[in-house]
Amino acid sequence: MSARIAIIGSFRRERYGGVLDVLETFAASGFDIVSPSGSEIVDGVEFVRFATDDASSSDQEIQSSTLERIFSADAVYVAAPGGYVGRTTCYEIGRVVQRRQPVYFSEYPVDLPVHIPEWCVVAPDEFVLRFQGSTQFEWLFAKGSGKMFDVERGLAPP
């Protein structure tokens, strides 16, 4: 069974090409991509929408549906070119961390007040080498000791 991966990050048009590159790399390596679908971005709207999104859905409904797909993944991969993640991605990362869902980053995120261990920052090709054919993903705070780790483990119910 192939691992189910959700890819998150800034999907603004100027950064979406990098997200699609990650999606193609992962899909070609046998990962099951649960989000995004890879469809075109709709122009002229503030909240990023895809051509495959129901045009009658509110932004909040689209975000809830997206979270449902993200939560179904074995791991989440954050495409963070130059460390940029954006507001909505910060929200999604927070939700994922609280669920103890494994999350990995293409680059160390800038302006995200969450401890990100070095082993969770991994380029797409390295991610493929490390996890292809595996579902042995780990939560950010699964390893490590000290007050911060204890607090984070206490904040996220098992």
Shape annotation: globular
For the secondary structure, the number of strands is 4
N- to C-terminal separation? 25 Å
What's the helix count? 5
CATH class designation: Alpha Beta
| Overall pLDDT | 90
Given the helix and strand composition, which structural class is it? alpha/beta
Contiguous runs where pLDDT drops below 50 for at least 5 residues = none
Largest sheet: 4 strands, parallel
Strand content: 5-15%
Q: What is the name of the CATH topology?
A: Rossmann fold
The Cα radius of gyration reads: 15 Å
Number of domains: 1
Secondary-structure element series: EHEHEHEHH
Helix content: 25-40%
* CATH architecture tag: 3-Layer(aba) Sandwich
Order of neighbouring strands in the sheet with most strands: 2-1-3-4
Which terms would index this structure?
Rossmann fold; four-stranded parallel sheet; 158 residues
